[in-house]
Amino acid sequence: MESSTKPSTPRRDRQLQLRKFGWESTRKSDLEAIVRDRNIVLSPADIKSFMQMTLKGLAYCHKKWVLHRDMKPNNLLIGADGQLKLADFGLARIFGSPDRKFTHQVFARWYRAPELLFGTKQYGSAVDVWAAACIFAELLLRRPFLQGSSDIDQLGKIFAAFGTPKPSQWPDMIYLPDYVEYQYVPSPSLRSLFPMASDDALDLLSKMFTYDPKARISVQQALEHRYFSSVPAPTKPVLLPRPPPKGESLNSRPSDFNPQDGPIVLSPPRKSRRVMLQREGPEGSSYHVDKVDDRAFEVRQATGENTAWREKPPMSIDLSVFGSRPPPRPTLNSADRSHLKRKLDLEFLHPE
């Protein structure tokens, strides 16, 4: 007897995870949809709230010695009540053993820490912190921050943003398996990259984007940063902006038009009004077209008792049927002309 179990796929695994945590029925959107929706305005308080919930979920994972290893906005789900939840634990692993080695091919490339791009096999919670910093930057910029097309290009994007690391900044860098030397690039100021961010936000970003994973701030330390206690306070989750559900739009509100208030002339979206010539219907009745639309015809009889008769008028009319030229003048032959002349002469000689 064949098994009815469906084959495992990443999409199915994710759905099973959502059902396991009772989240699938309450899921409304994800953070990526919010970042991409240009109709949504994110205030500093909104960004602070999203980041706080993200770090709280990540702190819980790290407290249980779990690495997420796939942090990105698409894996941060938003519920109907505005609560943010971490999802997609397909790459998650238990960490903490000093001798345990992992694969470095984890995370989406744009959210991958530099030590992973240099091929390290031993890492800890700092890789999740780097990805969370990329999400933070994405919320501030409303676009992905570091968009590399390959691992080498990704490192180039990182070094262009934060400067090429020096051995004093990251002593273990030269010992990594895939280390290659890059041309030195000075570090620009974070203010030039994030002009609208507050000083506290820039300070937290700089600590989360630290090159050396040993010196990088932890998730718990990030939650205790003054950025989250300063003004403005984080927006309450229920008040956070969310995109409209799929299949709806901002223009899908019910119309305020009430037919009983009187006639209102609305301009058609495209050419839909035509002047139609009157034609004779059966039994001498005539009809004319009030309005012609691309989808429907409304034919109304002007006179006559037979109201059940309807006919769709043609979309176009050949005016030659009705005579587009004036009728030709009648001509007189020679016999008619002679008869008419004699009649006129008699009337002139014998007037009444």
Describe this structure in words.
Residues 234-273 are annotated as: Disordered. It is an enzyme of class 2 (transferase). Its EC number is 2.7.11.23. The chain is of the alpha+beta class. It has a domain at 16-239: Orthogonal Bundle (Transferase(Phosphotransferase), domain 1), CATH 1.10.510.10. It contains ten helices and eight strands. The longest helix has 20 residues, at 44-63. It starts with 9 loop residues before the first helix and ends with a helix. The model is unreliable at 1-5, 18-26, 250-257 and 259-305 (pLDDT under 50).
Which features does this protein show?
disordered N terminus; 352 residues; single chain; elongated; 8 strands; Transferase(Phosphotransferase), domain 1; alpha+beta; three-stranded antiparallel β-sheet; phosphoprotein; RNA polymerase II CTD heptapeptide repeat kinase activity; [RNA-polymerase]-subunit kinase; 30% helix
Mean pLDDT: 78
Unreliable segments of 5+ consecutive residues: 1-5, 18-26, 250-257, 259-305
**Could you say what the CATH topology of the domain at 16-239 is called?**
Transferase(Phosphotransferase), domain 1
* Relevant CATH superfamily of the domain at 16-239: Transferase(Phosphotransferase) domain 1
Q: Whole-number radius of gyration?
A: 39 Å
Number of strands: 8
Strand content: 5-15%
Distance between the termini: 121 Å
Strand arrangement across the biggest beta sheet: 1-3-4
- Helix/strand order: HEHHEEEEHHHHHHEEEH
Q: Which CATH top level class of the domain at 16-239 fits?
A: Mainly Alpha
Category from helices, strands and their pairing: alpha+beta
CATH level-two architecture of the domain at 16-239: Orthogonal Bundle
Principal-axis shape equals elongated
